[in-house]
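Dig into these lines:

——
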Amino acid sequence: QSSSSPFAHATTNTTKSRKRKFIPRKAAVQMTDNARKLFVNLLDSKPEKDGVLLDYHQSSTGEPRMVFSFRFVTLDELVDDDEAVSLEVNEDGTPKSPREAIDDGKPKLYVHHNALLKVLGATVDVDMENITPILYDREGNEMDPNA
């Protein structure tokens, strides 16, 4: 006796469905003009790199704390869950949306998937005295990675 179930053939389907990448309407983080210019200038001096990665990980000093870090990356170091933020602006001065910039081939700020929820909606700025990136939350407070 063979049972005729409408689900019988569902498990034998070996074709892998291709998952479409979600393209957000807004960038994961905002950038000040100073931050945008700094990253563009840094990447101009490193043409072999495809962008700057904003990461969130355990401190390498041995302290039991988390830190934000920025480093140069190539596309092969990224995974599908890392979010790209364009360093380009439109003619009116507004940042390019992820949809406009997804395949433009230009360097970007990438938000590592481990950092995404921690920095979502934040603003990346630069302390021009020390040339140090700073993250501000939506209320304008400097972000502490351990908060």
User: Anything to note?
Assistant: Confidence is low (pLDDT under 50) at residues 11-15. The radius of gyration is 20 Å. The longest helix spans residues 33-44. The chain has three helices and seven strands.
